[in-house]
Design goal:
Length: about 110
């Protein structure tokens, strides 16, 4: 599988292969971060998710994000949890808005003070 490493602007082109015994090999990287990225992308790809959560009594929504990256398979469920939530003010940056969003094990936190 070919992919581009997105960890820095150099954008190394990686070739990631999984052998029959389950070993993952990465070529094309020029630093250890690229090798780790290639393995992660093949075995358990994850992404940070950002979004907006409704605020009770206000038209302006609260910007939020996942505290850490979540598995790609959980992204739709995490976005749905954001869509379903309503938060009460006040809120500070870093406050947990939705704990363990959609059973992902990752909290959704505020990225603004309101
Ligand atoms: S492998 Fe290293 S140098 Fe290449 S894009 Fe990834 S982080 Fe940058």
């Amino acid at each position: 599988m070919k992919m581009i490493c997105i960890n820095c602007p150099k954008g190394c082109e990686l070739d990631v292969e999984k052998s029959a015994d389950g070993t993952v090999s990465v070529t094309g990287h020029t630093c250890p971060r690229g090798e780790a990225y290639g393995k992660s992308e093949l075995l358990n790809p994850t992404r940070m998710v950002t979004g907006l959560v409704r605020v009770a009594g206000m038209r302006k929504p609260l910007p939020v994000k996942t505290r850490t990256a979540v598995p790609k398979a959980k992204i739709d469920a995490v976005l749905f949890a954001m869509h379903q939530a309503t938060v009460q003010l006040p809120v500070a940056i870093g406050d947990v808005i939705i704990p363990d969003a959609a059973g992902s094990g990752v909290d959704i936190v505020a990225t603004a003070n309101m």
